[in-house]
Amino acid sequence: MADEVILLIGSDVSVNLGIGLPTLIAERMNPESNVMIQSENGVLGVAGRPTKETLSPTLINAGKETISISKGASFFDSSLSFGMIRGGHIDYCVLGGMEVDAKRNLANWMIPGKKVTGMGGAMDLVNGARQVIIMMTHFNKHGEPKLLGQCVLPLTGKNVVDLVVTDKGIFKPNGSKFEVIKLAPGVNEKDLKLA
């Protein structure tokens, strides 16, 4: 999934990576691609996981995982970070998801009745980034599809999702259904349970 997202975003862009699966992108990104990875906790120039020799407890991403940084990285406060996000200065954000629906809505922050720490920066990211890509498994742990006709869980954003990359392929919500852009090897469209 991470490699498919890397192909979609290309080079010479800025990207914000959400917590969970999207953090794999930083680890697999070719340093030659000139992609500046931004973390809303105040880093521009995230470069994946550190080695044992370069590990610093003060270098973390929004998910509180330790990171390494690329040459020329910069650090700033949350105010400037969210100014970048809200001001439309981030080309792509790649977030995890619990549900995405055909109307381009995203639910990725809460399951009613379960303990939740908050939405974090996702609400700002889905409305501030130029392109929103959701990277998630196609089915939840109960075998139910996460691409739906209409989200059931509380929404993070309405009419915000541009593309969804799952372990089964790449999909585009168009307002009434999901268009299949690409299927993963060995995947048959009839097994996807698409809305």
Quick summary of this structure?
The protein has helices at residues 2-9, 24-28, 78-86, 122-128; strands at 14-17, 36-39, 43-46, 69-75, 92-95, 99-101, 106-107, 131-135, 147-148, 163-166, 169-173, 178-183. The chain is of the alpha/beta class.
Provide tags for this entry.
195 residues; alpha/beta; Glutaconate Coenzyme A-transferase; 9-stranded mixed β-sheet; 3-stranded mixed β-sheet; 4 helices; globular
Assembly form of the protein: single chain
Terminal-residue CA separation: 21 Å
Approximate shape: globular
Regions with little confidence, pLDDT below 50 for 5+ residues: none
The strand count comes to 12
Under the CATH scheme, which class of the domain at 2-32 and 90-191? Answer: Alpha Beta
Lateral arrangement of strands in the main beta sheet: 4-3-2-1-5-8-10-11-12
Given the structure, what is the number of helices?
A: 4
Average pLDDT reading: 92
Q: Into which percent range does the helicity of residues fall?
A: 10-25%
The CATH superfamily label of the domain at 2-32 and 90-191 reads Glutaconate Coenzyme A-transferase
Indicate the structural class: alpha/beta
Largest sheet, in brief, is:
9 strands, mixed
SSE order, one letter for each helix or strand: HEHEEEHEEEHEEEEE
SS strand fraction: 25-35%
CATH fold category name of the domain at 2-32 and 90-191: Glutaconate Coenzyme A-transferase
* CATH architecture type of the domain at 2-32 and 90-191: 3-Layer(aba) Sandwich
Q: Measured on Cα atoms, how large is the radius of gyration?
A: 16 Å
